[in-house]
Amino acid sequence: MSLEDAELVEQVRAGRTEAYGVLVRKYQDRLFNTCWRICGHLEDARDLTQEAFLKGYESFGEFRQQSGFYTWVFRIAVNLALSHRRKSSRRRTMSLDSPGGAAGTQAEELARRVSQSGESASPDRLGQAEIHGRVARALQGLDDEHRAVLVLRDIEGCDYQVIGEILGIPPGTVKSRLHRGREALARAIQTPPAATQETETTYDQRES
User: Fold this and answer.
1) Domain hosting residue 8, numbered range
2) Closest Cα to residue 71, out of 137, 131, 23, 129?
3) Are 150 and 181 in contact (CB under 8 A)?
4) What pLDDT, on a 0 to 100 scale, did the predictor assign at position 193?
5) 176 in the same domain as 128
6) DSSP assignment letter at 61
7) For tag attachment on the chain, is the N or C end more exposed, with fewer CB atoms within 10 Å?
8) For the chain, what is the domain count?
9) Is residue 204 part of a domain?
């Protein structure tokens, strides 16, 4: 945990609720982005982010500082987002662009990452709209385990140890799920939309 976070945590423990507000402002954008990528819906992600911080505050006495505040509150948020996704009966299409857009989009970067070790279509040869559509459909089609690891690693940039702590799995399992998730995403990106709708991706559930 960073020195700044540790000091803020101690202030919260001492009853200074405004210190928790500082932690919220520090991590709310990243928490929201993670919830959004996992659940796939903007408004739901906003609600999940608020719920995660509220649960974090209500259970702050359980925070033993064995991991950083960031890891602890992200574990709460990811569990909420995954639970929400499982309960949702609707399938929604998401955009990987942040509101307002950017020159180098997360969709393009994710497409580049998964194409480095596979045979997926090069993002340089695909139009931006096509990249976004294929990545969005591919992420929607991944199961929860592979989707969560891909979001945390390739979009949020968390290291294997932190991902393992957030998801409650060993780093070796993180690497295994990331490898299989990238392979599945790479195949889906290179597959035309019509074929993607007709083909269900299956996974080898044996993980190290």
Assistant:
1) 3-87
2) 23
3) yes
4) 55
5) yes
6) G
7) C
8) 2
9) no
Contacts of 158 (CB under 8 A, 6+ apart): 152, 166
Where in the chain does DSSP place strands (E)? Answer: none
Report which of residues 24 and 128 the model is more confident about.
24
CATH number at residue 158: 1.10.10.10
Does 116 lie in the same domain as 83?
no
For residue 202, the model assigns a pLDDT of 42
Residue 154 gets which letter from DSSP?
A: I
Give the position of tokens 């991590």: 27
Establish if 72 belongs to a structural domain: yes
Joined tokens for residue 171 = 């780093």
DSSP 8-state code for residue 103: S
The CATH number assigned to the domain holding 46 equals 1.10.1740.10
- Integer Cα distance of 116 and 127 in angstroms: 18
Tokens of 163: 């991902």
Choosing from 55, 87, 119, the residue where a domain stops is: 87
Top pLDDT among 126 and 142 is at: 142
pTM: 0.72
Span 63-99, pLDDT tens digits: 877 778 999 999 999 999 999 988 875 544 454 554 4
